[in-house]
Design the sequence.
């Protein structure tokens, strides 16, 4: 079976002229605090049982084939044994919530302290609730279970049973709704309010900003690891980043981190979405500063990106600092999954799921398909380019993964 390849892009022109000045201004105003917070987040994650930096692969053979200098892929399938990066945000958010409840300073947060018997008695009746396409809910359920707390997870219509079962295995109660992701978020929020639970959602809305901001902070560990690994390996810093977005929280975290660390050397960053849930792309087309919603079933194989309403905070960051927004068909993700699963001789194989493989798939299409040569030139992709992508999940739907790797053509 063949999946069509479709790529649409928008490049907000005014960003190119103000980006560097904005980066310098933000550096003056916020960089010191952000660096301090990133160190606190990383120190906390290192206290979590099972923490290890996930691999950063340098796919030199594929890069040579594509005609670029480097292709780096951060492989999040190893994160805490949960097959995705989302636990980084969930664990830090729970730490901040519980730290406030227990009167513990941010600088002293340690995962093990929440597992002490005297502390567990004070938190064991807490119930955390969220909505998820899979990865965030599993991360939250795992973190809550580690601490002896309950969790309730709402999932949208069409959710794959394997993802439901993986969350249930972490001890959560799961409710699969008949609604899309964004309406499921609203159901979860209503249930939390009605029952006195604590909602831990990875997107924000009016009156609900602090916990989503903590989740964004949690994701900086992934970004910090990637930059540190590139530097330690003696590799060239990335000139380009391709970062996928659902509600945009992870993308904003990665871009914000790199902007703060590298200032004017921040890579050219492009935000990718499914063309069935491209709320960032649609917002960038109108470009009046207001995030736009995309409704409907959001029918894409990229379940982790099937979000029709941007996180307003994330949209502000992405609109300000990214160089473009890309809307991609499912076939682009299929191409990436197959490339990473069956690499060129000498490169490491990577098990990358539907949402994780979009970046490498997009780079391959841009560099090899003459139909996209104008886009490639607009994005300044050439033999001097070093590209960084984040494979944010492994085979979270194993059955579909095998079908794609062995059956589909893109």
Sequence:
């Amino acid at each position: 079976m063949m999946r069509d390849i479709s790529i649409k892009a928008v490049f907000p022109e005014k960003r190119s002229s103000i980006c560097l000045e904005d980066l310098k201004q933000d550096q003056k105003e916020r960089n010191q605090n952000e660096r301090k917070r990133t160190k606190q987040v990383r120190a906390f994650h290192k206290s979590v049982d099972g923490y290890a930096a996930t691999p950063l692969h340098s796919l030199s053979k594929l890069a040579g084939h594509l005609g670029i200098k480097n292709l780096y892929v951060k492989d999040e399938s190893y994160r805490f044994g949960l097959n995705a990066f989302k636990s980084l945000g969930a664990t830090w958010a729970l730490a901040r919530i519980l730290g406030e409840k227990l009167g513990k300073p941010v600088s002293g947060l340690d995962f093990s302290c929440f597992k002490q018997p005297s502390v567990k008695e004070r938190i064991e009746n807490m119930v955390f609730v969220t909505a998820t396409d899979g990865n965030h809910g599993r991360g939250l359920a795992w973190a809550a279970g580690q601490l002896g707390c309950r969790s309730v997870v709402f999932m949208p219509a069409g959710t794959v049973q394997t993802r439901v079962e993986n969350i249930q295995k972490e001890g959560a109660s799961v409710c699969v709704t008949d609604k899309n992701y964004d309406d499921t978020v609203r159901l979860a929020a209503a249930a939390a309010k009605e029952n006195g639970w604590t909602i831990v959602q990875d997107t924000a809305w009016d009156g609900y900003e602090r916990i989503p901001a903590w989740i964004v902070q949690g994701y900086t560990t992934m970004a910090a690891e990637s930059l540190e690994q590139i530097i330690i390996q003696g590799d060239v810093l990335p000139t380009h980043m391709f970062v996928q977005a659902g509600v945009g929280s992870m993308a904003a975290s990665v871009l914000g981190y790199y902007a703060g660390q590298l200032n004017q050397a921040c890579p050219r960053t492009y935000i990718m979405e499914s063309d069935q849930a491209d709320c960032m792309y649609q917002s960038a087309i109108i470009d009046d500063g207001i995030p736009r919603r995309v409704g409907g079933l959001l029918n894409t194989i990229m379940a982790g990106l099937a979000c029709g309403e941007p996180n307003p905070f994330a949209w502000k960051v992405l609109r300000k600092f990214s160089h473009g927004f890309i809307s991609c068909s499912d076939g682009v993700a299929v191409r990436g999954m197959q490339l990473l699963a069956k690499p060129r001789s000498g490169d490491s194989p990577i098990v990358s799921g539907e949402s994780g493989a979009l970046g490498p798939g997009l780079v391959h299409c841009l560099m090899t398909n003459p139909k996209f040569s104008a886009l490639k030139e607009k994005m300044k992709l050439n033999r001097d380019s070093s590209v960084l992508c984040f494979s944010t999940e492994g085979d979270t739907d194993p059955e579909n993964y095998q079908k794609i790797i062995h059956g589909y053509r893109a």
Summary: The chain has two domains: 7-84+216-406, 87-211.
